[in-house]
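User: quick one - fold this with 3-methyl-2-oxobutanoic acid bound?
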Amino acid sequence: MSKNQVYIFDTTLRDGEQVPGCKLNTHQKLIIAEQLDFLGVDIIEAGFPISSPGDFNSVVEISKIVKNATVCGLTRANKKDIEVAAESLKYAKKPRIHTGIGTSESHIKFKFNSTPEKIIERAIEAVKYAKTFVEDVEFYAEDAGRTDNEFLARVCEAVIKAGATVLNIPDTTGYCLPSEYGAKIKYLTENVKGIEKAILSCHCHNDLGLATANSIEGVINGARQIECTINGIGERAGNTALEEVVMILKQHPYLNLQTNINSKMINSVSRLVSESMGMPVQPNKAIVGANAFAHSSGIHQDGVIKKRETYEIIDPKEVGVDHSSIVLTARSGRAALAYRAKNIGYELTKLELDEAYDAFLSCADCKKEVTDEDIHQIMESIHIDRKIIVA
Ligand code: KIV
Ligand code: ZN
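Assistant: Sure. Structure tokens for the protein plus 3-methyl-2-oxobutanoic acid:
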């Protein structure tokens, strides 16, 4: 493993699929898993096998078809969960069991009615038991975001000794500030004996809109795996968005952190997940929203037409979007109208453009967006013919 490699652990089919009303059937999950494998994710969390026969079956079938990625199944820290997960992963080329338990004061007291010492014992037992089935065992310290760092370090040390290969530090409730989450990861890298034998993983929820920022702070401070979902889907406000962390690392090469993701597939996989789940992507969503590469104000349009980089930090082709779009609204200027008119065959002189622009504004004031059809009508109304043959 290169020191600068950040592993992408995709949990669209597990944490992502917990979105109410967005359940996928096995066939849909198989199509998504295959695309995630092509996309280059390192680990696919395929489901929570004990949760239902359908989920179990999906993990079995995904294990059979995934060629490159590790396939992972979630469990709680008990034998039955672990046995069922191991069974569901038996066809996987690279199987991983993801087991764990809540470590925050409130989880220990109210969820488990237990004590910190007993929680550590259960964590060790679960990891040791999972190790009897697979070599690759990831441990999650649920609610690590609100867990005292000293206790969290003790848990991490104990599960590494028991054989955990990856330590997942979830900010389960999306509570942490980026500086806090980064400091937590740093604390673990500096205070857990044996930490060099394991990979620290960021699993951040988006309740305060900080999931992506927290994951990035995590890897800046030494974590080397990010758990994320396509389009940031997941419980409540969702999980870290895969497309965001991947493009942040790509757009900031001085961080010297790389992923294996083929970013040119991001747009198509985003659409596939959105359509399969019946869950539209908000138009202003970073990277994959319909407006992520659309420009509608006159000043921005003029800049982008002259040089795309004036208002875009990512070439849309890098994420599989053909081109930036110039949307015509009442806020658009002459440059945008001339550009869009030229695209459909009208090469306008300055005088023609002035006349067309007045007609355009009257039209734009009555509509949300002016379409190519509207432009044809505007040109016809002022007797301007097409001069360019458009293929
Ligand atoms: O958010 C969380 O803590 C989780 C764990 C089960 C990994 O999803
Ligand atoms: Zn989660």
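One thing worth noting: Strands lie at 7-10, 43-47, 70-74, 95-102, 136-142, 166-171, 199-204, 225-228, 294-295, 325-326.
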